[in-house]
Amino acid sequence: MLAAAVKDTSATAAKNHQPSAKSGTGGAAEGPKHRSYADRDPVVPSVGGPRGEPLPAGAGGLPAADVAGADHPCARAVPQGQLPGRPRHPLRERPVRHRRCVRDERRHEPLPQRGEARARARDGDGAVRAARGRGGPPAGAALGAELAEARAPPHLHRRQDREEAGGAHRQGRHPARAGVPTGVSLNHCAAHFTPNCGTDEKIVLDYDDVMKIDFGTQINGRIIDCAWTVAMNEGKYENLLRAVRESTYEGVKQAGIDVRLCDVGAAIEEVMESYEVEINNKVYPVKSIRNLTGHNIAPYVIHGGKSVPIVKGGEQTKMEEGELFAIETFGTTGRGYVAEEGDCSHYMMVPGGETMPLRSERASALLKHIHQNYNTLAFCRKWLDRAGEDRHLLALNQLCEAGAVHKYPPLCDVRGCYTAQVEHTILLRPTAKEVLSKGDDY
């Protein structure tokens, strides 16, 4: 019975859909009673070309827009079906876990207006804007060694900024100038070397030398510290340079609010010591220099009191919101430990050192010059020579013996080894960390 019903229904449907024998110009009324309104519209080809021309038909009668052949713009942009990956940057802003929803110092502040809140989130306070450089190139990026020391970086563009900077300079606040002497440490010397006037100026850079360029700039005491390593024979030391670069990036990646400093050091050491370098047919493991560290930066003080180790087992102290940190790593083919060696070139006045009583008038005059021009910022002997303070070594040693000034001699590993360094300065913001020393070319 079911088969007979299906057969009968099919026969009826076929009979109803047959065209009428009387259909013609006047037989339209005897055709199907209900027709689609789309039948009344003319057939227009798809328009998709750049000049409005119809797209050619593709496989199976489909338009070419549906069958992306070799001539399709998408196919030309992505050859062989290789889709481009998402752009990645090891120093992009990364969200930071923030457990304190309301900081103590902001708890009793009035709620800002919507525009003020956006501006604060974007630019931060005045100290942060000074550290960024007011829209100029990042402090510490793309400045030559002598250029960084000879003049202030071009951060002050507006007339108001220049006037404020001039007033600050007259008050001894040093608005924009070199923050630390430019270090050009060679080979086994890891840090704290810049040529003194005299015999050091005869040093010539050789093709096989490895040189660490370490310097910083500052505006109103906000210091940006950075470093990188230059090797003319880059292929020879490729893995050594890569080890310190990747270790520094790993340190930046691990840093954040409430992160323990020891955890950052452990991550840095793991990356650093995963590399080895072959030099003159001999393989050397790359080691972290365990008695050199990164550090936080305070206003007018390059080392603010917290150290960021580059080996495991460091301090349990945590990073905090708003802090400025210099993440720097040192790799070596030597023993992994540095000691003071050679003539000192780097010095720094201790906080309050300008008030210390001195018996020598020459030492007192030199201390006054240091306080007025550098305050607690680091300086070097050749800066004193340029300022007309010649024959200053005896008075400078007296200041060091009195405790008003600290000396920082060159730090060296064993002779014959090679050391490398990379450093960046980061700011811990509430929801991200910002790399202040990163430029297009560094």
From TrEMBL:
Belongs to the peptidase M24A family. Methionine aminopeptidase eukaryotic type 2 subfamily. Residues 1-15, 52-70 have a biased composition (Low complexity). Residues 182-336 form the Peptidase M24 domain. A divalent metal cation 2 binds at D225, H295, E328, E423. A divalent metal cation 1 binds at D214, D225, E423. Binds 2 divalent metal cations per subunit. Has a high-affinity and a low affinity metal-binding site. The true nature of the physiological cofactor is under debate. The enzyme is active with cobalt, zinc, manganese or divalent iron ions. Most likely, methionine aminopeptidases function as mononuclear Fe(2+)-metalloproteases under physiological conditions, and the catalytically relevant metal-binding site has been assigned to the histidine-containing high-affinity site. This is Methionine aminopeptidase 2. Keywords: Aminopeptidase, Cytoplasm, Hydrolase, Metal-binding, Protease. It comes from Strigomonas culicis. Residues 31-42, 102-126 have a biased composition (Basic and acidic residues). Gene3D superfamilies: Creatinase/methionine aminopeptidase superfamily, Winged helix-like DNA-binding domain superfamily/Winged helix DNA-binding domain. Its EC number is 3.4.11.18. Pfam families: Peptidase_M24.
